[in-house]
Amino acid sequence: MSWTMLSTSVADGEDHYDSIWNAAGAILDIDPGSWADRSPLHEAASQGRLLALKTLLSQGYNVNTLTIDHVTPLHEACLGDHVGCARTLLEAGGNVNATTIDGVTPLFNACSRGSANCVELLLEYGAKTQLETCLPSPAHEASSKGHSDCLEVLISWGIDVDHDIPHLGTPLYVACKGQHLACVRKLLYAGQYRWDVWMGTHSHGCIVTLCLSLRCQCTAWQALGYSITCCGSAV
Q: What are the mean pLDDT values of the chain's consecutive 10-residue runs (235 residues total)?
């Protein structure tokens, strides 16, 4: 076979694949999006199209199909807060701990979006709350975005609230830096927090950070649940 004939065959094969892709998208009314390596399954998951998702799975689409960056349909469903799609993918054998080339998991995406329901679902299916990396954990992500509901779910599943990551700190530090008071409160009361021993500890350092960022000591104490009137005292 000549090189010209081989090239023509390959091109025909690619055109055939594109035709199938476009046909599936048209039939299921799925926006093809802008990522050339995304499958119809990725699109259905990202858009929360549950019926389309189930149809594609019944047609034999690989539930763990990857993009060039190793993004799975489950990543997309969790980032979009589509709990029904996430559940369907998990029931079909979706990898709950799939990791992208950037170290992102479906649980991380759920915490980034603030989807407490997806967080609960993923944990029920065995999602790891922290991989063996120095990247931010789901708890750090939830704390940085102020998603206290996600944090509450993670805490109820026994995460290490004092998990310290080099160059990033603990979830408490991240929450204080971002002035997310609800997250600060949940993390403090979930840890080994005691008024008589906290001076000089990392928790104390976090609250100092919070005071400095808020420019007021009283607001920091209010974050701990104390009913006090702000005096406006600067730190």
A: 38 44 46 64 97 97 96 98 99 97 96 98 97 87 97 96 88 88 88 47 54 53 53 42
Q: Both tokens of residue 119?
A: 């967080």
Give the pair of three-digit tokens for residue 209: 């950070």
For residue 13, the model assigns a pLDDT of 42
Distance (Å, whole) CA 153 – CA 159: 9
pTM metric for this prediction: 0.74
Q: Which domains does the chain have, with CATH numbers?
A: 1-128 (1.25.40.20), 135-235 (1.25.40.20)
* Per-residue model confidence (pLDDT) at position 210: 58
